[in-house]
Amino acid sequence: MKIDGARFLKDLHDLRAIGAAGVSKGVVRPAYSDADIEARQWLADRMRAAGLRVETDAMGNVFGLAEGPSILMGSHSDSQPEGGWLDGALGVIAALEVARAAQEAGGPAVSVVSFQDEEGRFGVTTGSAVWSGQLDQDAADVLTDNAGVSLAEARAAMGDMVTGPVDPTQFTGYIELHIEQGPTLDSSGEQIGVVSDIVGIRDMKITFSGQQNHAGTTPMQLRKDAFQAVSEFNTLLNDRLRNVVTPSTVWTIGHVSLHPNASSIVPGKAVFSMQWRDGDSDRLARMETIIRETADEVAKSRGIELSYGTLLGLEPVAMDARLRDALAQGAEAVAPGKWRKMPSGALHDATNVARLMPVAMLFVPSINGISHAFEEDTDEHDLVAGVEVLAKAVAAL
Ligand code: GLV
Ligand code: MN
Ligand code: MN
User: Fold this and answer.
1) For a 10 Å CB count at each end of the chain, is N or C smaller?
2) Is the CB of 299 within 6 Å of ligand 1?
3) Ligand 1 pocket, 347 CB below 6 A?
4) Which helix (H) or strand (E) holds 218?
């Protein structure tokens, strides 16, 4: 099987042009935005041109299907609100190139997918969560983004593309190439990471409701300031989590919405995201207890109200040994001595797909370990090396 590196890179750059933004190679292509839908239409055309049959399910997951049983490869083409050009896009376009190369070589059969809303505008890897049965469509439809738009409203925008459900039993396994999105490979000078397992995640919204009031006349001791509650919660939490976490545990308050968000008003309401990740489900549960106890304590001591949104989560998942070994052999052939086995601290669609079939993942380096930012980038030699490892693994399987 012969990979065409120039053809692969051209497609990757063409996809980047849809929603290109910011400095360097940034993209803004959140799930169901005009740019995301345009990218999915473009991708469907590229799949058809590669001889694949295009089917799109109700969530907007776009599949390019080979005839008969096939191995599924891909990732996602939606981006973070400020994203890089490779997060997701790399895995989709690499899959397309391997599918084309496999056809030119007379086999094996390779199908391609771009999952929808991997970046969690509405939840956590929403498109693959619904496709895999992790999340019911009805439960997904009532999830809302930070602006209050429901998933049901958002996905109506690409209703024209929907053909119906896509049967997972036609696939023998799933392989996803992705940028590492962290510093390990870049700092070690290695070219390839073969993923051992993917961490678990928990994510929920927390709301503190106090009393909106005048910022000049309300004495400090009488305030029910929702921002001060968030601030105190965060400080206490960082201290208390120290007793249960490991150096690889992470937690993030990434979105805060203050109401009414004005200089001269004591904020009456704060809604914020609380997300935590670890490779051990028990630790995730212990962290949840600490998070809830700390928020309860802050609310009580300040006399304000507290409520929680739906707790979304995915368990840690180990990669399939057979697929992983095929990737490891491909890595040794393409980058002898310059690859390693490593866990994934980022979430991926592979976690959901593992409910349905064997899955494995491959990483290439992220320059300076930067991702979820416009500056995200990878040396193009490393991108092509990743596709070559995929091709070798698929041919061997
Ligand atoms: C996926 O992008 C994640 O947040 O890990
Ligand atoms: Mn991604
Ligand atoms: Mn991402």
Assistant:
1) C
2) no
3) yes
4) none
